[in-house]
Write a structure and sequence with these properties.
Blueprint: H1 9-43, H2 54-68
């Protein structure tokens, strides 16, 4: 964080608050990702060819949905 000569403690506090909100948003996103991966991992028996892997299948479906908009 760079502070200039005119920067006040209030400015730094405001910046810190914005950073806290950004971190919280990232943590929420990571939490949702963890939940999805945990479920996918439990659905996967860990056997068979990758063409039948529920984890890869879900990721491919997600990529297709993202590509469609």
């Amino acid at each position: 964080m760079r502070v200039g000569p005119g920067t006040t403690c209030a400015d730094v506090r405001k910046f810190a608050g914005v950073k806290i909100r950004e971190i919280e948003e990232k943590m929420e996103t990571l939490g949702r990702m963890k939940e999805v991966l945990t479920k996918l991992t439990s659905d996967c028996e860990g056997r068979g060819p990758t063409s039948e892997c529920p984890i890869l299948e879900a990721l491919e479906n997600e990529e297709e949905q993202d590509a469609r908009g």
